């Protein structure tokens, strides 16, 4: 029996089914189908159910909003002279991601040169940029000088770029600092007019929405919004008079060792402020070493007891209420008198004085007699009508109104102190408004720091006759026998009143004084009222007639010349006093 040979093992393996491979193939196919199905479902979800998210992501990568910066408006004086302007500058910034990626390529000499121009050390420059390569923006220097920008551009350091900005510049510097204030590095007003009228000066930039491609090229403009131009502001200040006022005030503060001082010049015909200066001041273009205490506009914020500069008011009150006339003679005696249990005294014994004599000699006893010779409410009403205890209408931030406290019952000595300028407070602009009202024939105008195109509505608070009589009495104060000879102005007739008041402290009155002078010019046809305050003069000279009157003389003389007011010293017209006074 012959056996058939068995098939080779290899052949047997070929005849077997590849079960494992088929399962693997099926698994791959199923997996791929599942993945593709998930992608299709996800794509359908994103594009059909929530397409906004994709659009938002796309817009984040391609949409940009460009703003055409609006330059800050200018501040001008009454004659159109520029007091504050914005100049284009560039800020230097870095892209930390680009800088760090290319740091190994940057020559160390260029890196050190960049640090030198930024006035920092190379290590400080590295610290400023940091080690985080996800950051894309950091300022290196704001509002850099053109020379700095040009030099750094030539270094050609990757990741260092420049941004167009504007910087505020004040041509008059410290002369107008307290009026204008200043802006911060982002061009936002921080003090003075700059802060108070920031919205008016700023304007709104024009906006343009564009689409960019992957290379940063502009491919489409989607929308445009027109901007709003910034507005200029024109002040009532005359820069020429302002410069003289500041120069003379600064000189007096230094000469007499005073802690501070203020000068206010007002146009009596409409209440416009022609000059408002304070010393010490600061340079708004460079405030690195400026004490913040110097930022205060003392002419509107600081109040004081006015002393003898207020004596026209009790005299006017007596005239208005008919308790005295220009012929009235008041016995002031030759020594102190006891009023309400306390002494009131004059510098010297003057005997009998008429109203002009009381003003000329600045008699405390004289004005006390006048104050006590009329009803209390009538006496105090004159102070209120002339603006004591109320704002002037100037409208500047920080203006104080002073204090004249109401009392249920006024004692005689309390009324006496009010008559010669104590027991209440005013500021420099309030005092200037009082004298402007007197000089304007008794019509009061609100003060304005802006140039007016239309004369404001005035209010008559005293009769023209009595106001004119007071102007003539003020001239007598500056004339022979008066207390303010140093206020005289060559070629012009001027008048005013000195003031010397002790400063009140925590424990009563101290040994510090405020020397002041308030006056009007020219007498023949008053145009300006000028107030000068010298705070805490040191040394032997502290009387208003010594420290403040010379400043009035210089400022009012220059102002009248700048305003083209003809000299009136030889004016032959009869004095405006309607009744001939007795010799005092």
UniProtKB/TrEMBL annotation:
Compartments reported by the entry: Cell inner membrane; Membrane
Catalytic activity line of the entry: Preferential cleavage: (Ac)2-L-Lys-D-Ala-|-D-Ala. Also transpeptidation of peptidyl-alanyl moieties that are N-acyl substituents of D-alanine
GO biological process, one term: cell division
EC annotation from Swiss-Prot or TrEMBL: 3.4.16.4
Keywords: Carboxypeptidase, Cell cycle, Cell division, Cell inner membrane, Cell membrane, Cell shape, Cell wall biogenesis/degradation, Hydrolase, Membrane, Peptidoglycan synthesis, Protease, Septation, Transmembrane, Transmembrane helix
Pfam family, one: Transpeptidase
Ranges for domain Penicillin-binding protein transpeptidase: 261-555
Membrane topology label: Single-pass membrane protein
Active-site residue list: 308
Span of the signal peptide: none
Gene3D superfamilies cross-referenced by the UniProt entry: 1.10.150.770, 3.30.450.330, DD-peptidase/beta-lactamase superfamily (3.40.710.10), Penicillin-binding protein 2a (Domain 2) (3.90.1310.10)
Parts of the chain that traverse the membrane: 21-45
Keyword Lipid metabolism: no
Pathway in which this enzyme or protein is active: Cell wall biogenesis; peptidoglycan biosynthesis
UniProt record similarity statement: Belongs to the transpeptidase family. FtsI subfamily.
Protein name: Peptidoglycan D,D-transpeptidase FtsI
Gene: ftsI
């Amino acid at each position: 029996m012959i056996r058939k040979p068995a098939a080779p093992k290899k052949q047997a393996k070929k005849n077997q089914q590849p079960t494992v491979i088929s399962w693997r193939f099926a698994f791959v196919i199923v997996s791929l189908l599942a993945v593709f199905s998930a992608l299709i479902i996800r794509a359908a979800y994103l594009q059909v159910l929530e397409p906004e998210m994709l659009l938002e992501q796309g817009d984040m990568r391609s949409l940009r909003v460009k703003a055409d910066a609006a330059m800050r408006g200018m501040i001008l004086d009454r004659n159109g002279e520029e007091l504050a302007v914005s100049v284009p500058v560039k800020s230097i910034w870095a892209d930390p991601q680009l800088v760090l990626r290319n740091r190994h390529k940057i020559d160390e000499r260029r890196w050190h040169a960049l640090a030198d121009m930024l006035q920092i050390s190379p290590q400080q420059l590295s610290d400023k940029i940091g080690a985080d390569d996800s950051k894309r923006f950091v300022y290196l220097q704001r509002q850099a000088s053109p020379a700095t920008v040009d030099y750094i551009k030539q270094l050609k350091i990757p990741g260092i770029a420049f941004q167009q900005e504007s910087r505020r510049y004040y041509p008059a510097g410290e002369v107008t600092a307290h009026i204008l204030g200043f802006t911060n590095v982002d061009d936002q007003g921080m003090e003075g007019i700059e802060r108070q009228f920031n919205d008016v000066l700023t304007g709104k930039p024009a906006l343009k929405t564009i689409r960019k491609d992957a290379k940063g090229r502009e491919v489409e403009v989607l929308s445009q919004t027109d901007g709003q131009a910034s507005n200029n502001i024109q002040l009532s200040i005359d820069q020429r008079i302002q410069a003289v006022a500041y120069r003379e005030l600064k000189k007096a503060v230094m000469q007499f060792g005073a802690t501070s001082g203020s000068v206010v010049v007002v146009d009596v015909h409409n209440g416009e402020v022609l000059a408002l200066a304070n010393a010490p001041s600061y340079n708004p273009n460079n405030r690195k070493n400026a004490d913040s205490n110097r930022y205060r506009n003392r002419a509107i914020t600081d109040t004081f007891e006015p002393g003898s500069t207020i004596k026209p008011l009790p005299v006017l009150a007596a005239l208005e209420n008919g308790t005295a006339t220009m012929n009235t003679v008041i016995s002031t005696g030759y020594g102190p008198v006891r009023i309400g249990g306390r002494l009131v005294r004059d510098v010297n014994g003057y005997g009998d004085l008429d109203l002009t004599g009381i003003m000329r000699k600045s008699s405390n006893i004289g004005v006390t007699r006048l104050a006590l010779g009329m009803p209390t409410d009538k006496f105090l009403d004159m102070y209120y009508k002339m603006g004591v205890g109320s704002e002037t209408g100037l409208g500047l931030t920080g203006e104080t109104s002073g204090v004249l406290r109401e009392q249920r019952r006024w004692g005689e000595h309390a009324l006496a102190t009010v008559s010669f300028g104590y027991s209440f407070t005013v500021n420099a602009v309030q005092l200037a408004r009082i004298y402007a009202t007197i000089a304007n024939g008794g019509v009061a105008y609100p003060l304005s720091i802006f140039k007016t195109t239309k004369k404001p509505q005035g209010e008559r608070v005293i009769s023209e006759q009595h106001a004119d009589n007071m102007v003539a009495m003020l001239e007598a104060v500056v004339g022979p026998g008066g207390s303010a000879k140093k206020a005289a102005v060559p070629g012009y007739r001027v008048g005013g009143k000195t003031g010397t008041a002790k400063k009140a402290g925590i424990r009563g009155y101290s040994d510090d004084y405020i020397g002041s002078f308030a006056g009007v010019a020219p007498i023949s046809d008053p145009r300006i009222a000028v107030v000068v305050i010298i705070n805490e003069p040191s040394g032997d000279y502290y009387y208003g007639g010594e420290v403040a009157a010379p400043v009035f003389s210089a400022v009012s003389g220059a102002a009248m010349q700048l305003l083209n007011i003809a000299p009136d010293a030889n004016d032959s017209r009869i004095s405006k006093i309607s009744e001939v006074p007795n010799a005092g």
